[in-house]
């Protein structure tokens, strides 16, 4: 049986309140929360998808995308089913929307303790929980991350960042990288894109991950025309990043492609990606990357001090010959905020 007793919940009368994410679901016996991965069985909250894997691959870490942590390394990447949001433009909706037991997605059980050996067998230096939302997989991620860290592997969460303070703290000693989406700045944007209410919770989690827990943080914003691409929204994200996360924090501004509920919205114009990059730089962000589009140099790490290309990227391939062994610029020795 794959079910495990869940962490972070309390009883409220004859129901249970989940305390893992800001949805704060109050769940009746036999029902599940918004995420579909956590439900009440015999009066207890259970992690219903513990160890159930839908997707497994050995990826370049650049695919997450993570650019300033162990560049050019490979990471064992795995996901399950379910999500705490219901994004209308989700590229992985086939696994983010189903319940864990509805038969729509083939699942297999994978022991958390097997992850380090599997990672090493495929030339991976780390383990990433990704594809669907890993926060809702808390108990399995914790067991796998403990095993990975004990084996000398790094750990990555590729997350929408929608987690309570208590939930984030549960991960804190076991996760190295918090690669978070910031889908917009306002509650209105999050309601329109993701059908959740609390945009500030995502930013609070990223700030806490960075400063309270010392995680490496990178931010992705998928730019959806007419939804989250205004100067006002981009100014707010960039200003917050500089103020709360620091100017060396990578910002991946990625191109939207028409999908699902937003199938009638055109792809992001390249000019708007470049406008977002200019806004980020104007606020003081030193590393703004343009993703999902083939622009020469759009994903290169360029030294702000001397202009040398420290890491040249094409697709998911990374040439780190311009990077010093300590993560500095090989040409001038300036710090780039890169961990090797």
Defining traits:
single chain; 340 residues; alpha/beta; TIM Barrel; 8-stranded mixed sheet; 3-stranded antiparallel sheet; globular
Note down, in words, how this protein is organized:
The protein has 340 residues and is α/β, with parallel strands linked by helices. The chain folds into 3 domains: 4-47, no CATH class; 52-299, TIM Barrel; 301-340, no CATH class. It contains 8 helices and 19 strands. Helix 4 (165-171) links the parallel strand 12 (154-159) and strand 13. 49% of the residues are buried.
- Summing up helix and strand content along with how strands pair, one would put the structural category as alpha/beta
Task: Catalogue the unreliable spans.
Answer: none
Radius of gyration: 20 Å
CATH C-level of the largest domain: Alpha Beta
Largest sheet: 8 strands, mixed
